[in-house]
Structure formats: C-alpha cells, structure tokens
Fold these 4 entries.
Entry 1:
Amino acid sequence: MKQSLTLTLLLHWGSQHVLGFAPPVFLASGSRSHSLKPLQEAVNGKANGETPKEDKKRDRSKLIDSEDWLDAAIQSTLDKGGFDDSSFLVGILGDLHIDPRKMDEYEEGHDHWVPIFEKAKEAHGNVAMVSLGDLGESKNCDHNPSNPSELFAGTTLCHEMAAEFLRSFDVPYEVIGGNHDLEGIDEFRTDRQNLEVFMKAHGKPTAQFCREIADKTLLVGLGSTIFREAPFTSHEVIIDQAQIDWFEKLLQDKPADEGWKIFVFTHAPPNGSGLRVLQENHVVNGCCWLNHSNERQCKKFIELVREHRCVKAWFSGHFHLGQDYQDSITFPTIPREEGPYPNRGSCVFAQTSVMRGGTSRDGRQQSRLLRGNKDGFEICTVDHGKGGQIRLDATITYRDDSHEVGIYMHEDEAYEHDNYFKVYQPTEGDREYYCGAETDEECSITEDEPVTMDTKVWWRLSSGRVLGVMDGMLLEYDSSTLAPLGLVLSAEELLGRAIAVVDSGIDDCIVADDDDAMETLECDDYYQEREQAVIVHDLEKGSITVVQPNEDGSYWRKIVRNKIARMKEVRRVKAAIQYGVERLWLDETEAKKSVQSTWGPYTTTSGNAL
C-alpha cells in the first residue's frame, strides 16, 4: 500500500502562494510512513468492533448520503493503489451573496463540508477551498443604521464577515473577486480603495492567486478589479491586463510536457467555455463572459486554453444556475453532430451553483467538489438543498500530458423552464449561410419568410461577424467559438419581419456623392473586404431597417451603462423634477411625467458642422 504524508499548513489563511509570492511551506506531522490502515479499517467498518460494511461499490453517480459517498470514494482510490503526494481535494463555493440576516443556510452548508475536508486531511492532507466571489448580497441588509440605503456587497463589513465564514472551514482558502465585490460605492470612492480592503480582509497580496495543492498541480485564480470604472455595465467581470499578462506567463512557465496540471478559477467563465448562460440577463446586458465588452481580451482566455494544454479544468460561478444540467460541465471535444468543433484545448469547464436558496435562479443549492491525483480527476456536486448529499458528475482520465478522456456520470436533469436557462448556439443542422465575398449580391436569410419565435438561423458575414436568430431576437455570436455575445434586435423589433444581407460596397472603386462621381480610388487592401448591409424588412408595410454595426465592426448593443453613471443620471433627473416643481410650479406627479432624458452619441448622419 502506498503511504501518505500528512501535512500541517504553517501559513496564514489565503497567503500560501507560488510564482512571485511566498512559496508554500509545509511541515510533516509524524512520519512519512504514516499508515492508511486506520482509514481503510474505518472505511470497511472494522474499527471499534463494528460490523464490516458490505457494499463499498455504491454508485457514486447518484446523490447519496455524504458519509456513504466518501467511504465509496476512498475505497475506490485504495483499490487503485491508494493516496500519494499527487492526491488532492478542493471544495469550490459559488456566489455566496452573504446576507447577515439569513445565516442559517450558510451554517448548514458549512456543516456539509467539514466532514469532507476531515476525511481528505486524514487521507492525504492536500486540501483547500476556493470561493468564486460575489461574497455579499447586493442590497441593504440592515447592516448600517446610519445609511439605510447602503448595499452590503463590497463593504468592509461584508469582506470581514465573508473572511470569517471562509476561515471557519479550517482549511486553507483562496478567493477571487466577482462583479459585486467592489460594490461598496458608498464607503469607497475608487475601485483601488475597495480592492485593497478586499485583499486585506482575505490576506491576499494580489487580486489573483496561485497555490500548489499537490505535486505539480496548481490552483490559479483571476479576480475582477473594475466596477466604478467599467466602460459599460459595472457587472461585467473584468480581469485587468496585468493579470492577463501574469496568467499567460505562468502558463508558459508551467508547460504540460513537464507534467504541470493547472486548475483555473474565475467568477464568470471565458468566452468559448460552452456553458449554459442566461439570455435575458447576462447575454443581453453584456456581462456573460470574462471581459465581455473588450473583443480582444474576451477572446484571449480561450486562445490561451487552446495553446496551453496544462490547463485541465476551469471553474466559474456568476450564473446562479444548478449543476444538474449536463451543460453545466463541458469537455474539450463534443460529437460533431452536436455542434461545431469547440477546440477547448485540454480543458473541462464547470459551472458552480450557489449555497443559499434565496440566491438561486433555478432552486438548486450546490457546491463543487474536485478530487484528483496524477491519473486524473473527478468533478462532483455537494447538494446543500438535499442535506449535503454528494454525486459524481464527471470523471476525467489523463491519457497523456496533453489529452484526457471525460465521461458524464449522470443523465441530464429536466427543468420546468429549461429553455429559458439556455441560449441558442449555432449547431449542425440549423440553416446557415456564408454571406462572404464569394456569394451572390444578396443573401435572403429567412427566404422572405417572417421571423417567428421558432426561427433558428445563423450566418457569417464577409467581415467574419456571425449573426443568428433565436426566440425572435437577433444576436451576435463570437466568430471563433460561436458563443453568444449580445443582443442586436429585440423580439419587438424583429418578429414578423424578414432578414436579408445585400451588397453595399464601392462599385468599381468609385466614391460617389449622390449621382456625381467625385473621386476614383485604387482598389487597395482597404476595399478588398466585401461591404454588406444587414436589412430587416416588413413584408406587409414595406418598411426597411438597416442594422448598422458599431464603430468597431461589432453588431451587439452595449446597452447597459456603468452603475456610477446611471446613479448620476438618476440624480440629474431628480434635480430636473425639483426644478419643475419650484420654478415651473408643476406638481410632483406632473413634473415626473414631463422630464425626459437624451443621450449621445448622435444616431443619424444628417447635419453638418458649420
């Protein structure tokens, strides 16, 4: 039987880091020849004269009592040679959104995890916990009597309370920032001030982390650092460029062919993960993926995953969706009949649910359990809504340093509103069009048929941009991963209308003003991409709408403004209402109805500067 080294962690909570920070420091507790015999006897029920347990081969892919599941898991490992220095276990907590008035479910969740950690400490000692951020509730929680409108999320009290909760598990923990963790807008004037309090509370030297959990096995986290200064919605999860550079350098320095295995943790998933997302919330608002509104950075994460096969799994939260859907876990490859080849490198992506019922979008209360060794790893569910029962969701076996085989361990669970929680992504068998430079002058996307709620069609423009129709809406998709990026036209604007793509480029390289040719240009590279117009037309009324792209060439609407900007807008409206009451002698109700706002930039091409 292989022997185990029981380790006692010497460092303070959250401060054990590698690669540029303090290296991990361990002290052996007892001898390296510490025997697993007591553990094996306990598993077999022989300790203290108990009757031996008979069925240690229980089906771990079903939700079963945690003690039985853990016994079966330990027995499975012992049957395959036992625990060694490559063995590890990580508890992964999704969006906590702690409300200090509602701590009962957090205490229950804590009690579900403690025996899991204790078993792992006894077996091998390589244990840690990772919180995926969004630590506090984004509403007033009666926590500050002097400011009854203050949000709890992002405050000093929030982070100190979250740190106390995370330390109570009695294992080393790491945490990364989500889109609500810098929301202490009444307490802090800048993101930097808020971030410093977040890091201080959790003993973090940086927003990111890197922990060596077992031999050549790293836990790596990247945190959101921008809220007040977000270019669009403040709830976009933004990893700053310095972290991206650090992450890329780490992957370069820890290659798969040297045996490194890296598990990544972020609040939101990267574009290209293939995980189930919320169309009515995260896609429409542009806060679905990491760095969603920055096209170059948004693509960067999946590009790094494709290039560096050391990235074995990537865990995220953000969506508040359960772990019973099969697409809460996605593998590096899928059958081609299910969709375009995703090219996710060697990485498995996993969605993590929530602990408290009041924060769940589908009623599920679940956490992730990750356990593995040199041969592979398992992704499991700890179900807090069912008394802490555990289920094996997926097994991943390493074939070599750059390839693995993943298997779903249970069937997809049916949900009452399943379609609501899943955004259409282009797949094989749907109608598709390539409206590129080699095609005719017109692509009749819907073949002069009006769009209905059942219409599913997608097309690629000459520019490479991908558009598609689902649930009566026009969406833009990433050109490489075909992940949904955002809303172009709402169902209100699109239903009952047909779509076509027509040529709009310069003919024979002539630039014309009205009917008079003004200037002839050479056909250089600038004009080689075919210029096209996406038009939506009403078949009965004859009206035509041109869908104009943004300045950067994208089509999806970045419609949600920064939260600080929106708060200022509300204050300006209130000031205008007050002006109407005091200076125009309107009553308050009348004043509210009379006030309107206008925004830039200009939306027409008419008008000249004189």
Note: Residues 116 and 411 are 25 Å apart (CA to CA).
Entry 2:
Amino acid sequence: MFAAQPTPAAPPAADALRVQRAEIVDRKGFEKPMVAATLMVPAGWKHSGEVQWNIGRRCGRPYGMALQAAAPEGGEAITLDPSEAWGATNYGSPLGDCPQAGFRDAREYLASWIARHRRNARLVEYKPRPDKSKELAQNQWAGGSLRSWVDSGEALIAWTGDGREFHERLATAVVFSHSRLAGLNGQVLESLQGEALGVLSWRSASRPVSQRHFELMWATLKTAPEWQARIAAAERQMAADNAATQAQISRMQAESSRETLAHIQRRGEIRNEAMQQTERMRNESWQSGQATQDRMHRDTVRTIREVQGYRDPRSGGVVELPQYYDHAWQLRDGTYVLTDDPNFDPARDIGMAGERLQRTRE
C-alpha cells in the first residue's frame, strides 16, 4: 500500500513501510516562503501543500493549511483540508464573520463536514480520540469568564465516486472557546466559538486503509517551529491593532449618541474584556511553548504524538518518524523505511542502498 513492495524472493521486507516528507509551504504570509508544516506520505506519491490566507477574515485564524497527496494509479489519496470556524451567541449578535452553528463536539462537526463534502457517504464508524487532544489541550486556558478546550475524533466512511467504492478515514481536532459575561440588567451574555484545525483524510478504493497506517500518517503531521513563532508574533500584533480600532469606534459612538453612552461603554468593556482574555490565553500559550523546549518536554510531546526522533545522517539534524516500528532506515533517494524486521537489508530487499537511523532524544 505504501509503494516499493518487495519482490517474492525477499519476504523479510513484507512489513516495511516506505515514506517521504511532504511540505506545506507558506508563500504569501511573510517576506519569503517558509515551511509551515510537514507530513510523511507514502513514497512515490505526488504531493503539494500550501498555506491559504484570507486576511479580511474575522472568524478564527486568517490562514489554513491544505495538502494533497495521491498514489500514481489514483486509487488512494491523502488530503488535509483548511481550518474552519463558526460561532453562536445567546444575544443575537454574530461573532465577527463567523457562520452561525452550534456544533458541540468533533463528531457533530465531522458529520456536517461529511454531509457537505461527501454527499453520498455513509458513516461506518466514529470514535472519540482524547489521546489526540492531549498535546493541544496543554495550551488551552480556563479561568474567569473564558474557557477553552479541545475535542478530537475519527470517522470511517464509505462512498461512491467515478464508478468506484471508496473507504475513507477522517480525523479532526476542534478547539472550543466559551465566554460568559455579565450584561445589563442582570443578563448573562454567552458565546461559543469553535474552530476545526483542518480535516485530515486518507481514502482508498475497495477497502479501508489500515488503522495502523492511518495512525502513522497522522502522528507525523507537525507544525514548523520557526513558522509558528512568526505566526504567534503576528497574531499578537493583530490583536493589539484590533483592540485599538475597537476603542476608537467606541469613542466615536459615545460622542455621537450621549443617551446610549452607558450601553456603549458596557458593550465596549465586554468586548475588550473578551479580547484581552483571548489575547492573554494566546500569549500564555506561546510563552508556555517557549519555556518548555527542553528534553523532557520533547520526550513528552513525542510520546503523545507517538513519534520517535532519529538522527538524520545527511543533514545532521533530527527527523521524527512514527514509533510503531522497531527500526528505521534512510534510503539513498532520501525516503525512509520503517520495519520491525531486525534483518532488513534495503539493498537486498528493495534494491536500494540505505543507512540505519539511530534514535536520539534531542
């Protein structure tokens, strides 16, 4: 399934998994292109990935990651769809440009996504994935009137396209933010915003992709630290600009309508309080991430993401690969092979020289 199947004369390589790194590149967000994220996909597949920007968007992140990878014969494909946000309130006003929706968990969101993007699909199985929420949940914030949390889930669906039946595994993680503020006359103003951090899928004709292979692929989806640092700095600046703009609007409204001054001031306070708490949550998340870049944190995160660091003999750096296999090799063409076979020999088994990778805790 993952390409480069061994010849009949070399059964020891039957468990070998051969993959290559696919990059998601941000070509428009900064002064020069930057790698935003990476994902391991089967070797030999064509792939492309980009960061899509929507600067005027006032709902969730103004950017989203997209990736497509496809097998040469067209029977399999991996995709990552961009993030999507929504919101709902109990006081009628919309949350920015957010579409009105009340999804309460990852399952409800995935059901909506499937209905919109796979119209004739039937749900075969759904399961919550709290294990995938752990790393993201480390950076969520709760306190006062604002609370945030993460819910993750995975679905298996079946659908028909181009005269063939496909099975597809889909997964997402959704970040929820709930705000509860005191309004006028004792009214409690509540809002709920959700943002799905993309939908990752792997479809295959005739039979489902194995759970093990899907797990391996999901575990290697990783945001590039340098790009994430630039994004965090930009988000802090945008939040500050938005707060200044809103303060000016509030002043203009107060000057033009004295009789509603109390209402305007209270609305401004409510809005600014929510923005300040959201900004504080983002800042604390970023500072926490910066403060925990030591070995213990890397080990913990890798355990959660179910990956293992290996020394890359070409670059001298570290490459993260799924930890489900006992041995890892880098082949001459730059692709990687994962195997449980201690006697695996790439030159003998798949006809290409390679070097065994050494594990590292860096």
Note: The mean pLDDT is 81.
Entry 3:
Amino acid sequence: MAALASINPYSSSSSSLHPSFHSSPLIFSSNTTHDPSSCSLLSVRAAKSSRRGLSLLPVSRGLTIRSAATKPAKSPAEEDWKTKREYLLQKRVRSVDVKEAFRLQKENNFVILDVRPEAEFKESHPPGAINVQIYRLIKEWTAWDIARRAAFAFFGIFAGTEENPEFLESVESKINKDAKIIVACSAGGTMKPTQNLPEGQQSRSLIAAYLLVLNGYTNVFHLEGGLYSWFKEELPAISEE
C-alpha cells in the first residue's frame, strides 16, 4: 500500500491581463528500500494467526509527489487590481484623455510611454513616444513556462505572453524618475467606477503606472481610452515598418 508523503498544491489569484494557467505535472518517485524490522514483524504476526485471525501490518513505501511546474511567487504586477487601484489613487495618478495628452506632450514636454508589445508599437505610435513593453512573448523554458505555453496553445494562442522582468530597468535607462510621463497601452482601462465595474477596469498601462509609482516615479499620468482613442481621433501617428 503506497502512502502519500507530501502534496503541496499551489493556488494563487492573478490580476495580470494575460491568462494565468496553473498546471502541475506530477513526478512520482518510489522508495523501494524495505525495512527488515517490518518484515520480521510481519512474520511474527503470521505465526500467531493460529490463535487469532491473521493480522498483517502493511509495509509502507515512501511515495513522493513533487510539482514540476510550480508557479513563481506573485510579482507586484500580479497584485490584486483593488490594491493597485487604491495605491494609484493614493499617489494621485491622474488619467488624461488623448487630446489633453497630445497638448501636454507638445507644450509641456510630457513623455508618452507606450507599453504595448514592440510589434504593435512599430506598426503605429504617437511621434516621440518611447516603447518599453510591459509584457513580452514567453522566452524561458522552465517547467512552469512550458506548462504555460501548453495552456495558451490549448486555447489556440500560440504567442503567449509573460511579464517583462526587465521593464523597470529599461524604463529607468530611458526616462528620468522626475520626468512627466503619460503611460499608454491599446485599451487604456480606467480607474473610474461604473455601474458594471465599480472598481474601474484594469489595463496594461495602469499596471505599468502602478509599477512606476511603486518604484519612485512621481509624475505619472495615465492615457484614458488608450491609443485606440488616439488613432480614432486621428491624432499624429507614425510607423517604423
């Protein structure tokens, strides 16, 4: 009879915008070393079976179950949206619409930080915008990353993304911490409550804004409506392709 030695299921809620799948392939390893004393005890019990019913003591074998694809610890970007939103409001991060953003960039030297994937940025972006993608295509080949690739593929997504671990380092190499920054993504999201969304709607740009203020940036703004609205309003845009 095999005894389960230790099973540690991992569960975590994630607020990241890319799908988060929890997959734990199991590796079984059986310890086949017998304890001689257990065998002797079994024989003694068998010998006494003439007076009593046969009593058998099962010999235990260690069975270890390990998770081969354990998800890494939760990063700040994966913090609950409610926590991120409260911090953004506490730090007075303000949302601006696209026309105001264009004016601030033109007249007040605001920097537009485009956190979309690099391919989307190259296709079209506001002139002067700086691109640092907050999510990138999955690059690593750890057990967890392989499991995530498989989970994305199951849903027909063959370009799964992961948080860019170099996001803050890249931003710091391009933008000073005292710069006035408008963070932009495709959809924009919002911190404003609505009837259907009492805590607003999370987005890549709001996650990026949260990471920036968390790491010492003091003049961070958010582009309401996202770059979708920018292009819809036919504001200036350029392409690198």
Note: The two ends are 65 Å apart (CA to CA).
Entry 4:
Amino acid sequence: MRLAAITRTGGCFLSFILFTLMPLSGYSSRNTGTYPAGQGRTSMNTLPDKDEPEKFKPYKRTSEQQNLQQTLPSNDEWWQLFKDPMLDTLIDKAVLKNYDVRNAIRKIEMAKAKLRVDRSPYYPTIYFSASYAPEKSSLSADKKNIIERNGTATVNLNWELDVFGRIRKESSSQKEFYLAAQEDYRGVMVSLAAQLSTAYMNLRCAQKQLEVTRKNIESQKQVMELTESKLKVGLASQLDAAQAKSLYLQTKASLPGIESTIAQQINLIGVLLGEHSVAIRDSLQKPRPIPTNPRQAANGIPANLIRQRPDVRSAERTIDGLAEAVGASRADWWPKFLVTGFFGYSSENFEQFTNKENMIWQIAPSIKWTIFSGRNLVESKKSAQLQLDEEINSYNLTLLTALQEVDNALVTYNKSLQQISALNDAYQQSQLTLDLAVEQYRNGLTSYQNVLSSQISLLNYENSLVEARTASLRYLIELYQALGGGWPVSEF
C-alpha cells in the first residue's frame, strides 16, 4: 500500500515535469520576410518549428523607377563601372589595409574559435592524474608508528551524451553567430567601398571646381583689364572698373577654400586606406576627370535584391542563433546522461606499480537531472526568448529601413539625372550669353552690367553643374550601398 502511494506520487510528479516540458508552438527563423512579433515558443528538444510567416510582397513600382532600373549597372563590384583605374586600385588597397576591415576579420576569427569551443563537448574529456599519499598510522598491535605509502596514476574520462540535443543546439547557435560575423565583415567591406568612392568623387569634384574657378578667374581678369583700358580712354566708368576688379578678387578668394577641401579629401582617403596621406598625396593631387554615370542594365529589382544587404543577412543569422539558444535553454530542463571512468594503477610498492594485480579501472554511467534550482531554468529560458523577440523586432525594422533607403536612393538618383540635364542646358546658354555680352561690350554696344551679370551666372551654373554631377554619383553609390552590393559571401 505504501509502495502504491509512492508510485502514485512519483507518477504525478513525473506527469507534471513532462507537462511542463511539452513542445509549444514555434516559428521560423530562416525566411526572407518579416517575423511575427511576440512568437517564439520552441520545443524542449527540437529546433523551433518552421512555420512560414507572411513575407514582404514585392510592391508595384512606378514607371519612373522601372525605367531607371534599365539604366543601372550590375550590383557586383559596382565601382568598376565608373571606369576609373585609380579608384579600383584604391579600393583594392583599402580592402587589405583598412583597420575596420582588420577588426571585422578578427571578430570572425573569435567567433570561429568560440564555435570550436562550443563543439568540444561532443567529445569526451580525457585527462591524466597522479597522486602520492604517505600516511602515518599507529594502529598496529605493538603500537609502533607505521608509515604507509600509496601511489595512484590514472587516465580519466568524462563524457556527456547529447541525448536531448543541448550541446548540438549550443553549437548550432554559435555557428549562426559565426555566420553573422561573416555578414558583418561583408557589411564593413560594403561601407568601406561606399565611403572611399564618395571621398574619391568629392576629391575629383573639388579639383574640377578648382579648374573651373581658375578658368573663370582668367576670364574675369581679361574683362577687368578691358574695363580698365576703356576707363583710360573715357569709355567706361570707375564704377564699372571697380565692379570688374571686385568680382575678380572675390572669385580669386574662393581658391583657398577649394584647395582646403582637396587636402581634406586626400587625408580622408588616407585614413580609409590605413596609411598616412603623405604616401598618396602626389598621386591624388593630379586632377582627373569626374567619372561619368554608367549606363548598363540592372539585375533584378530592389525588392529581390534586398536580402543581399549584409545587415539583413546578419540579422537573419542572429535570429537563427538565438532560436537555437532558446532550444538549448529548454534542453537544460531534461536530464543529462554522463559516462565517467578511469584506468590506471594503484600500489604501495612502486617497484611493482605496473603489475597486473595493481591495475584499477571503472566505467560508471550516470544521470544528472536538476529538480529544483530556484527560478534559474525558467528565467534562463525567458531571457533567451526575450532576446529572440527583440531581435525579430530589429529584423523587421531593418527590412523596412532597407526598403526605404533603396527607394529613396532610386528616386534621388533619378531626379539628379534630370537636374544634370537641365543644368547642362543652362550652362551652355550662360556661356553663349557671356560670349555675346563680352563681344558687344568690347564693341561698345552694351553696358558692363550685362557682362557682370553673365559672368556671375556662368560661374554659378558651372559650379552647380560640377556639384550636380558629383552628387549624382554619390546618390548612385548610396543606392549600391543600400542594396548591399560589392562582395559575395565567402567562408572563412
């Protein structure tokens, strides 16, 4: 009767334990769409169930965006489409020497080392131990002190059998974090290419502005000398001469600011290359043309390319890793099956220490099941689940932000092309206007005010055109950065 009561009590307790550990509803951690917020219940001994949540649906794009997609170049190593060998060389050097890239590689190596650590429990732990214990005893019949000497040397083994998948889940979790570190490295590379390309475009823009300014200074100097010669013969007023000289000096005063911008961009490029700018200053100070906007067919549409972004891929890997961590925390609720043992020798006579009769060994399977540990197991699982839910929310936000950045970059780049076309027409007309005004002024057919106005307009339009061309290239760089283009994923 007592045995039956104990059996009933034990059965109730076991039923309670099994009910607590029953698998609950799960969700997917690997997909291309959003994750439902608040989900994340996982089973005790399996990976979270692979439910398929609602994905982002490709949305209908405007005709402007569809037309623009036909003009965009390929997404792989997009900087080569600027057809600037110096830019290609700079990016190749930066990939090898940039300190952010070096740190990203170190993080991959650390994650890989941690992965190997987490995989080590798959194998038994084997170690050697030895002891020597002299012991004094006075329990002999003649009450004489006796010193007993006993030596032991054994090879020991500890091995946890991964019956419920705890070790496997911890290893799988760290593997996903390792893959996420690779995506973070790729993100650093994409960001580096974008930063370096932008700095390079800004440098060429400043050099072109310097060329434009010097050309306008020379033109304004000629008009100033013409005005002064007219003043000497009474065909121009002192006001005309003063205004001509004022415009000349004002334009000349803008040179130091442009030269300062050139120096700053060279210094920035040096930092991105991981070296002092002195080593590259001579090669970069030589002016080169601003690269033209490439015109090649695009591959796919942003809705399909969005998963190329390193931050999106890293977030997916992190979610997978945290989902595995939730499973590992639940596996802690199950018992652990262990195998321990040793083999060796133990003897009081060291001369006969390795004799067969002194051999000792043991193999002892055991089970360890935590019945009560406060709220350690419950709160550990809860903490892992909350981390997973937080990462899912961050992932959804990352997707929305990525779509926003791609759409913004597409629209901005499209409008910049229209702006370049309009400014180029205005610049051509302004140049024609100035030529006519100077010719008429030289022949005494118009006043200096028309020349002055035309000079100011030409300088403004020419600088605006240079800035618009550079801005358009920057917007294109931002588009490729938003798409995450530049480097394929590679295993380390």
Note: Strands lie at 125-137, 146-161, 336-347, 359-368.
